[in-house]
Amino acid sequence: MIRVLLADDQRLVRAGFRSILGGEPDITVVGEAGDGAEAVRLARRERPDVVFMDVRMPVLDGLEATRRIAADPELSDVRIVILTTYEQEEYVFAALRGGAAGFLLKDAEPAELIHCVRVVARGDALLAPSVTRRLIADVASRVPPPAPPPAASTLTAREGEIADLVAGGLSNDEIARRLTISPATAKTHVSRVLGKLGLRDRAQLVIWAYEAGRVQPGWLG
After folding, report:
1. Cα gap 124→129, rounded to integer Å
2. Of 85, 113, 137, which residue constitutes the final position of a domain?
3. DSSP string for 16-31
4. Enclosing domain of residue 152
5. H-type alpha helices, 141-201
6. Where in the sequence is 4-aspartylphosphate found (predicted)?
7. How many domains is the chain built from?
8. Exposed site from 3, 98, 140, 143, fewest CB < 10 Å?
9. In the predicted structure, residue 167 carries a pLDDT above the cut 70
10. Are residues 65 and 152 in the same domain?
11. 17-26, 195-204, 209-218: lowest mean pLDDT where?
12. Beta bridge partners of 102
């Protein structure tokens, strides 16, 4: 069972998400938070697999709530998805830096929401592939990095290639097809890269690749 926490200050948004997810046999909503502080408290109490986090909330905003959850070693398995609109790109990028696993547009279709939960719960891919590359590339080019990114000197040539493909928004299956390797091997490479660079997940690997200058906007075409 995939355990989901909903954090949004709009009751109707939470009710809509709960209604959609509640019909799935492998997903259960374990809590709802109307502000960021409550989201952090519920995350610590319920230990959800996935948290849907709005950016603008009272008491504590979604960015700080994301940072606090991601920084808690006891919540290392919790994956946070930022709920966003096209007008909030800078917030999304900051959230990814802070430890969010990805993002989902608030006007996403129900099927996208359900797919999002399952993808993030297994840690397999960055979300919203239709806009991920544009958003990351555009915002990364305008927002200065807070500190030098981890060095890539510990990566092998193949691992560096894998890192660049993840930064381009490719899933494990897509990486496997491009490099003519098995999906299991691709997943192993990604895990090894994350470990060597000390990164939490694929989302942070995307940020690292852009800040390290390894990939440029539009490089995958």
Report:
1. 13
2. 137
3. HHHHHHHT-TTEEEEE
4. 145-212
5. 157-167, 172-179, 183-197
6. 54
7. 2
8. 143
9. yes
10. no
11. 209-218
12. 81
Coil/strand/helix, residue 5: strand
At 220 the pLDDT is: 42
C-alpha 21/C-alpha 78 separation (Å) is 18
pLDDT at position 139: 53
Q: Is residue 217 part of a domain?
A: no
Question: Does residue 93 surpass a pLDDT of 90?
Answer: no
111-156, pLDDT tens digit by residue? 989 988 998 888 765 545 444 555 555 555 555 555 555 666 788 8
Reduced 3-state DSSP string for 104-151: EECCCCHHHHHHHHHHHHCCCCCCCHHHHHHHHHHHHCCCCCCCCCCC
pTM for this one?
Answer: 0.71
Q: How far apart are CA 81 and CA 100, in angstroms?
A: 6
The answer to whether the CB of 9 falls within 8 A of the CB of 34 is yes
Q: Which helix (H) or strand (E) holds 32?
A: strand 27-33
pLDDT computed for residue 33 by the predictor: 98
Residue where a domain terminates, one of 137, 168, 184? 137
Q: Write out the two tokens for 73.
A: 């070693």
**Location of structure tokens 């694929």:** 202
Q: Which two tokens stand for residue 13?
A: 């948004």
What is the spatial distance between Cα 41 and Cα 46, in angstroms, rounded to a whole number?
Answer: 9
The CB-side HSE value for 206 (13 A sphere, CA atoms) comes to 34
- Determine the average pLDDT of the residues in 7-31: 95
